[in-house]
Amino acid sequence: MKDLMYYDTCESGKRIQELRKAHEMTQAQLAEALNISLDHLRKIEGGQRGCSVDLLIALAAAFDVSLDFLVLGRGGSVAAARDKLQTLIDELTALKKGL
């Protein structure tokens, strides 16, 4: 049987907080950008409240991550995947030059 997956608001909130900090945004700036109250965002980041699908979509777009990452913690950001791929390309190019 596959592992059950569920929306853990605490873990999702932590991911949102980490993304906000990585983008050097304050809670007030993100709340304003999402058109939600500061209190609402604080509760989301604290895991006391979940996000609507519309809000998750807005967050995913704002931070260039997948919904799967925000909700379940799987995957990650598109930018991180591109960076990892570019690193691998650079390493392979260096190896090829050494042949």
Write a concise synopsis of the structure shown:
With 99 residues, the chain is an all-alpha fold. It has one domain (9-97): 434 Repressor (Amino-terminal Domain).
Report on the architecture of this protein.
With 99 residues, the chain is an all-alpha fold. It has one domain: 434 Repressor (Amino-terminal Domain) (Orthogonal Bundle), CATH 1.10.260. It is 68% helix and 0% strand. It has 6 helices and no strands. The chain has helices at residues 9-22, 27-34, 38-45, 53-63, 67-72, 78-97.
Query: What overall geometry do the principal axes of the alpha carbons give?
Result: elongated
Number of DSSP strands?
0
Number of helices: 6
Count of domains:
1
Name the poorly predicted regions.
Answer: none
Q: Mind telling me the CATH superfamily name?
A: lambda repressor-like DNA-binding domains
**Helix and strand string, N-terminal first?**
HHHHHH
Present the secondary structure layout.
Layout: H1 9-22, H2 27-34, H3 38-45, H4 53-63, H5 67-72, H6 78-97
Helix pairs in contact: 2-3
Tag the structure with descriptive keywords.
434 Repressor (Amino-terminal Domain); single chain; 99 residues; mainly alpha
